[in-house]
Amino acid sequence: MAAEELIEEVRQSGVERVVLEIVDIYGVSRSEQVSTRHFLDTWENGYTYPIAIISCTPRTVPAPGSRYTAASNYPDGYILPDPETFKLVPWLPDTGRVLCDFAHADGTTVEAYPRELLRRVLRTVPPEFEFSVGSELEFYLLDESYDPVTPHRHEAVSWMTEEVSGWYDTLDEWAGVYELPLELMHHEYGPGQFEVLFGHGDPMTQADRAFDFKRLVKQTSRTTGRRATFMSKPFPDESGSGYHLHVGLTVDGSNAFADGDGLSDRGRHFVGGLLEHADALTALQAPTLNAHKRYEPGGFVPSTASWGFGNRMAAVRIPIGDPRIEVRIGGADANPYVVIASTLAAGLHGIETELDPGEPVEGDPAGDRPDLLRRPWLALEALEEDEYLREALGEEFVDEYVAVRRQDLAEFRETVTDWERESYVEML
Fold it and tell me: How far is residue 274's CA from residue 252's CA, in Å, rounded to a whole number?
């Protein structure tokens, strides 16, 4: 969309205010609102905004090790609206929304900004390659007491899915306004756990859609007397929620991952790259202390760096008869820009160097393949030591990401939990 088209669309929409929305390193939506009059007069120049906002924990604690905080006196940058992303906001009257990019005061790009991270990786894709991605995001729908809206674990039981039909009707209606092509909803295994699917597309469009989808689900839930969470493991004895990323590759109009109904050499190499960088990918795609608890053996979640055909217990699954690559490492709370960028970067390394993924696994691969890292501090160390991903994702992004994650872990270490009190107050 050109600048003239954006101005015309905003005028024709009749909105009274525009939300300027950015995404932080965790994938949290942050924003400010301006009047439509002010937006139309000033949007091309951008809006002053502290860069440190992207380098905070989810509770907005700045990371001490960040180059955007105290080390540089908390500098201002500019958020720059992306004309392609203007949408009406269905839950706010007379309001539009535009996603923004981030620049330093001198006009240079903020390299750690998640949308720029994905652009950086996409610039390295060979010109003959055309990647498409699709996102499957699981989440829990809760009542106002934060209990699941449907009882006990099950999957796809019709009447339990129908229990939330009113909620889904609102979600579907608002998704139309928000230009999100929802395709399917079903009840997952956990109580109150759902999955909604939407179409495949180019990586940046799909990252924007996944980011928008999370926001849409949470806002729909709030306005219908419920709560939704994409937390990876909200209940210790129930299923974790994953972010399953489906990746396809077309070269010269043909599926480059397919060899008949099987996986081509290029597809095998892409998988090899994912497994080669699995430790670092757990740091990037399991973005919280809680997210690493999802890697439990014996369930429909990955616990090892493994791959297989149709195997939902492997980290990388190749659907039978449909050669594409489903990456199951990510937790639902992961930042979609980071998930897509890191997946493509790791897979491209596998293609470039023809990495061999080894043999596919049958059944539960626990004990037969390397474990995915369940200790986040070890995963962060693996990311720091992964020379290829540091180069592919950028030193600036990796340093900021690690600094923010370590601040989050430091906050947890200073917290006294209920478990500690229950275990020690009376006994010690």
Answer: 24
Instruction: Report residue 295 as tokens.
Output: 């890697």
End-to-end CA distance of the chain: give it in Å, rounded.
66
Q: Where are the domains of the chain?
A: 3-110, 120-393
Which tokens in the block code for residue 188? 């997952």
How far, in Å, CA of 120 to CA of 143, rounded? 40
Label residue 1 by pLDDT band (50, 70, 90). Answer: low
Say if residues 206 and 135 touch (Cβ distance below 8 Å).
yes
Q: What's the CATH number for 120-393? A: 3.30.590.10
- Return d(Cα 137, Cα 282) in angstroms, integer: 17
- Copy the structure tokens of residue 214: 């999370």
CATH code for the domain defined by 3-110: 3.10.20.70
Close Cβ partners of 29 (under 8 Å, ≥ 6 residues apart): 21, 22, 23, 211, 214, 215
pLDDT in tens, 192-229: 999 988 888 999 999 999 999 999 999 999 998 999 99
pTM over the 0.85 mark: yes
Mark out the alpha helices in 14-164 (DSSP H runs).
36-42, 114-122, 158-162
Distance, CA of 221 to chain centre? 19
Alpha carbon distance 295, 317 (integer Å): 15
The DSSP call for residue 120 is H
Beta carbons of 365 and 236 less than 8 angstroms apart: no
- Spell out a b/e string for 386-411, using b for 16 or more CB atoms within 10 Å of the CB, else e: bebbbebbbebbbbbbbbbbbbbbee
